[in-house]
Design a protein that fits this description.
- The chain has helices at about 110-120, 130-135, 145-160, 175-180, 185-200, 320-325, and strands spanning about 1-25, 35-45, 50-55, 60-65, 70-85, 100, 145, 160-165, 180-185, 205-210, 225-235, 240-245, 250, 255-260, 270-275, 280-290.
- It has about 350 residues and is of the alpha+beta class.
- The protein has 2 domains: about 1-85 and about 265-335, Immunoglobulin-like (Sandwich); about 95-265, C8orf32 fold (Roll).
- The strands form 4 sheets. Strands 1, 2, 3, 4, 5, 15 and 16 form a 7-stranded antiparallel β-sheet that branches. The chain has a 5-stranded antiparallel β-sheet with strand order 13-12-11-10-14. Strands 6-7 form a two-stranded antiparallel ribbon.
- β11 (about 225-235) and β12 form a beta hairpin.
- α4 packs across α5 (about 185-200).
- The chain starts with a strand and ends in a 12-residue tail after the last helix.
- The relative contact order is 0.23.
Length: about 350
């Protein structure tokens, strides 16, 4: 068990006062057997008129902030989390006998619920993506080891593609990632998610954070930033984590915030404002993930799992460019309405 603290602050700046619309936030993890939320605090400046918490169709925790038409030149969201994280004890998941070799069929009870995560979300014209995925099958053999297939695919993404911090909004089409041979963590997550789907696996996109311990010479890519990876559903093991950016299997040091069918459903922060497009002059994102000594006693959480929701917290954290790059996708939804 590891006690981890995450601070994630986003600040939007405008050339003149703009009227704020609704903003959607995905900062709070869902409690699970491997991730226990101990403390959570959300500071929004200026203070919204109201905050509404819901669970989306994937049971992710989502908050909506309403500002009542408030006009500002700066808007900031400062989220601080403390979580107990428990890595899986074994690097190889316990898969049901019938699913240990590929191909296999999901059982009749699970298949209807998994079908949306099996269907491709990006067209694979010409079967280019499926061809890339099939290289990990054993040629000339009727079956392949299921776990080895997925683990090899995970490692191959890290070895075959070059990691880049991208300034562009959104996620690359997986075919574009194949052609370019490069991408960000979210691009690699989409590439592997869709490649696994071409082989009939149920796979989904995961957003969250990656903790990088200070010791050791080889540091994973994306540490101290928003991060993206993949979960694949394997009978008997459930949703198993695969991080293609770093070629790592398992949940160690991965702080899961949201899992979804499509990456646009797991954007950390998005919103709108009334004004001209050129009124938006910039955004900064600061993310820090650090280890903490266990506290003497856990803090009592409020109704929605957060404490002192609007109390300022002025402790600093280091800016991370990749976090800003990943979150730029949210700007696609921060449209001006040209009043």
């Amino acid at each position: 068990m590891t006690l981890l603290k995450v601070r994630h602050k986003t600040t939007y700046r405008y050339a003149r006062p703009v009227e704020l619309g609704e903003h959607r936030m995905m900062f709070r993890p869902r409690a699970s057997h491997d991730l226990n939320l101990k403390k959570a605090k959300l500071v929004i400046r200026p203070e919204p008129v109201s905050i509404r918490w819901v669970h989306d169709v994937f049971d992710n925790s989502v908050a909506f902030a309403h500002f009542g038409g408030l006009a500002v030149k700066e808007l900031s969201f400062d989220s601080t989390l403390t979580v107990d994280h428990t890595p899986y004890s074994s690097p190889v998941p316990e898969i049901e006998e019938a699913a240990r070799t590929y191909p296999f069929l999901y059982n009749q009870e699970d298949e209807p619920d998994l079908q949306p995560s099996i269907a491709l979300q990006y067209p694979d014209e010409g079967g280019r993506l499926k061809k890339w995925a099939r290289q990990f099958l054993h040629p000339g053999r009727p079956t392949s080891d299921t776990f080895s297939l997925l683990a090899t695919m995970t490692t191959a993404v890290r070895e075959q593609f070059r990691y880049l911090r991208r300034e562009e909004m959104g996620v690359q089409h997986p075919i574009e990632t194949l052609l370019l041979g490069s991408g960000s963590c979210r691009d690699f997550a989409v590439l592997m998610m869709e490649a696994a789907r071409t082989l009939g696996f149920a796979a989904r996109f995961v957003s969250g954070y990656l903790y990088v311990p200070s010791q050791g010479d080889e540091r994973p890519v994306g540490g101290g930033a928003t991060h993206a990876w993949v979960q694949v559903y394997l009978p008997g093991a459930g949703w198993v984590e695969f991080d293609p950016t770093n070629g790592i299997v398992g949940n160690r040091n991965l702080i899961r915030i949201a899992a979804a069918r499509h990456p646009r459903q797991a954007i950390p922060l998005s919103g709108t404002y009334e004004g001209n497009r050129e009124d938006f002059i910039g955004m900064t994102v600061e993310v820090a993930v650090t280890g903490e000594a266990p506290a003497a006693a856990p803090e009592r959480l409020g109704e929605h799992g957060h404490s002192d929701r609007l109390r300022p917290d002025d402790r600093g954290s280091a800016r991370d460019r990749d976090a800003a790059d990943a979150q730029r996708s949210s700007l696609a939804r921060a449209r001006s309405s040209f009043a």
